[in-house]
Amino acid sequence: MTTSREIRLKSRPNGLPTPDNFELATVDVAAPGAGEVQVKNLWMTVDPYMRGRMNDVKSYAPPFQLGKAMDGGAIGQVTASGDPAFKEGDLVQSGFGWREGFTAPAKSVQKLDPRGLPVQTFLGAAGMPGLTAYAGLLKVAALKDGDVVFVSGAAGAVGAMVCQIAKAKGHTVIGSAGGAEKCAWLKSIGVDHVIDYKAETNLSAALAAAAPDGIDVYFDNVGGAHLEAALNSAKMFARFAICGMISIYNATKPEPGPSNLAQLIGKNIRMEGFIVSHHFAMMPQYVAELAAWHAAGKVTWKETVFEGIEKAPDAFIGLFRGENMGKMLVKLA
User: How far from 24 is each of 3, 19, 20, 98, 110, CA to CA, in Å?
Assistant: First the structure.
């Protein structure tokens, strides 16, 4: 491999990103020197958090730089190695997505053991989105016996795993998603009550009907009206894990907050935001449980796949249009 195509951030979006915010470039890929590996990417991920990195603001992850290749999770195969710990053909995981290949220090990639799973699973159910669901539900929301769990964005990569982990542990689960196809899939994987938010005129009323006695846990991927509905239906001492608020990521001006935040006080609700990188120590425990659940037929997953590096911007933009069921991925080779 001597050249690679990569996606660069051409301009910072105002609102929903458009194809004009991206550019495709071809670069040379050097042969690996001592302590380096050359990798051909097979798969890359696009995730909602990347939208925040397109803004030139300080956050928990550095902003993407204009005119430079973007980055993110990727699975690839070593094509040449200057490090004795890696050989040609080894599968590796890296943060060098949004490109077809690269040469980098060997310490910046991790050798991957697929354990019989498709390799792309480690960008989804067995990777960061899955761990986000696991840590957010069990540690941040402190799931307890008998809890009723409400999940927004329930047909997405994180939300679907939250639903299934809660079901695997014996809980009643209410999931919200947009459209009949997504809702039918959620029912097929055992979600007890499914709300099609696109078909509802009053989300709070729909949630109250699904959970007449209230909810104990809310796992938030959406924010906005979903958060307001969850506050209305929360029981005393409910716990809210705030993972994402995709409904406002492309807002061009500050969105109004929920009008009912005072319920946090009277209901003694604990609401906590979290970032998965603070919970990576839970990954071995999670993967072990995931393998057991998968073997028992308690957990499955969906993937929405775009093919070719040139389609990566379309895949990313599709996240905010609700075009994905489960994990959104780009197949590169």
Answer: 13, 10, 11, 10, 27
Q: Which amino acid is at 119?
A: V
- Tokens at 285, concatenated: 């425990």
User: Identity (one letter) of the amino acid at 245?
Assistant: M
Q: 103-156: per-residue pLDDT in tens?
A: 999 999 999 988 888 999 999 999 999 999 999 999 999 999 999 999 999 999
CA neighbours closer than 13 Å in the CB half-sphere of residue 104: 19
Residues 6+ apart with CB under 8 A from 33: 82
Residue in 148, 268, 139 with CA at minimum distance from that of residue 217: 148
At the topology level, CATH places domain 3-121+302-331 in Quinone Oxidoreductase; Chain A, domain 1 (3.90.180)
Q: d(Cα 76, Cα 58) in Å, to the nearest integer? A: 30
Strand partners, 158: none
Q: Are strands 74-81 and 36-45 parallel, antiparallel or unpaired?
A: antiparallel
Q: How far is the CA of 202 from the CAs of 111, 144, 197, in angstroms?
A: 48, 29, 9
Whole-model pTM: value is 0.93
CA distances from 40 to 94, 107, 220 (A): 11, 16, 36
Do 103 and 31 meet the contact criterion of CB atoms below 8 Å apart? yes
Is 149:292 a contact under the CB 8 Å cutoff? no
Q: Would the pLDDT of 60 be above 90?
A: no
**What CATH number matches the domain at 128-278, 2.60.120.620, 3.10.290.10, 2.60.40.60, 3.40.50.720?**
3.40.50.720
